Amino acid sequence: MEAKTWILVANASHAKLYQRQHTLQVPEYLRSWEHEESRKHVEDLIADSAAGRSQQSFAHGARPAIDPKTSPKLVVKEHFAAELGHYLNQERKAGTFAEIILVALPEFLGLLREALDKDMANCVTKSVAKDYTESHSEELQKHLEA
Length: 146
Description:
Layout: E1 5-10, E2 14-20, E3 28-34, H1 42-50, H2 72-93, E4 99-103, H3 106-115, H4 118-121, E5 124-128, H5 137-145
């Protein structure tokens, strides 16, 4: 019997985790995550992050509440990727799985990879730069076989 392979299928606001014992097995659903912050409009994210943190004075060393160089949408995507990365890192350390396949759009795939520790990154056997979060297990299996 082959070791367990996990398959993380994600986008910036939703992720599903599957597992399988061998490459011909239809992936078995394990759990999902929802990240509602990622669905918010930029204006709402700016208002949420500025609440209670506005800077009235620009005295020496003061800075505005929102860093204009960083997109609020990117920040929430990074937070979600970090949340997923932390979970995967912990589960790998616990020996829950041996290998993982990452499936996400290119931008989010990059954020996921950044969130993985070195040992976890070495467990990634395949990356698929697509959004299959709406696919069911059988469709996902067909996409992975292609």
